Amino acid sequence: MKLIYHSRQRSLENALGFPPHAYQTQIRIIHAKKLLADNLPLTEVALRTGFHSQSHLGWHFKRLVGITPGEYALDCRS
Fold first, then answer.
1. What is the mean pLDDT of each run of 10 residues along the chain (78 residues)?
2. HTH araC/xylS-type domain spans which residues (predicted)?
């Protein structure tokens, strides 16, 4: 069973160019950006996008987007 899992994971990684978990994180960040633009609180955004906490969301968001979720939300409001 593990061999099948790893084979599928490698196939996905080859097709996407990065591991499946990284793809999932990027999809979560895209969804978080939409929710932040809708003016939802950061804690609610973190929970709705599958992050364990606001800080977990913030760490990934800053790493992938280059600014914090709070800064992004402020940019969306102006």
1. 68 76 94 97 96 96 97 93
2. 1-75
Give dist(CA 70, CA 61) in Å, integer. 10
User: pTM for the whole thing?
Assistant: 0.82
Selection from 73, 14, 7, 9 nearest residue 46 by Cα: 73
- Using CA atoms, how far residue 73 sits from 4, 20, 24, in Å, is 42, 27, 22
**Residue that is written with structure tokens 């402020």 in the block:** 74
CATH annotation of 22-77? 1.10.10.60
d(CA 25, CA 64): 9
What is the rounded CA–CA span in Å between residue 21 and residue 24? 5
Domain residue spans in the chain?
22-77
